[in-house]
Write a structure and sequence with these properties.
The protein has 97 residues and is α+β, with helices and mostly antiparallel strands. It has a domain of 47 residues. It is built from two helices and two strands, in the order αββα. The chain has a two-stranded antiparallel sheet with strand order 1-2. The longest helix is centred in the last third of the chain and has 49 residues.
C-alpha cells in the first residue's frame, strides 16, 4: 500500500512538473554576479531547486556526522559505566566487625 501511495505521489509530481514546464517555457533574463544571460524559466527553477536540495543535504550531513560522533562517545561512556557497575556488583561484601 505504501509503495502504491509513493508511486501515485511521484506520478503527481511529474505531472505537476510537466505542466509547470509547459506553461513557463519562455526565456527570462538572469542577472548574476558576473553578467546577464537568457535562460528558460523552467531551467532556472529546476536549477534553483537542485542547488537548494544539495545545500540542504550538505548541511544535514554535517549535522548527522556530528551527532553520530556524539552517539559513539555516549555508547563508549555507557559501556564503561556498565563494566564498572558489573565489577562493583561482583565485589565480595565485607563482614561487619
Amino acid at each position: 500500500m505504501l509503495r502504491l501511495l509513493a508511486a501515485v505521489l511521484l506520478l503527481a509530481v511529474f505531472v505537476a512538473g510537466a505542466g509547470l514546464s509547459y506553461f513557463n517555457y519562455d526565456y527570462v533574463s538572469f542577472n548574476y554576479l558576473f553578467g546577464t544571460t537568457q535562460v528558460r524559466l523552467v531551467v532556472l527553477v529546476v536549477l534553483t531547486f537542485v542547488l537548494a536540495a544539495l545545500l540542504t543535504l550538505l548541511l544535514c550531513s554535517i549535522r548527522l556526522f556530528s551527532l553520530s560522533g556524539e552517539a559513539r562517545r555516549l555508547r563508549r561512556q555507557l559501556r564503561d559505566a556498565e563494566t564498572e557497575l558489573k565489577n562493583l556488583r561482583n565485589l565480595p561484601i565485607a563482614p561487619e566487625r
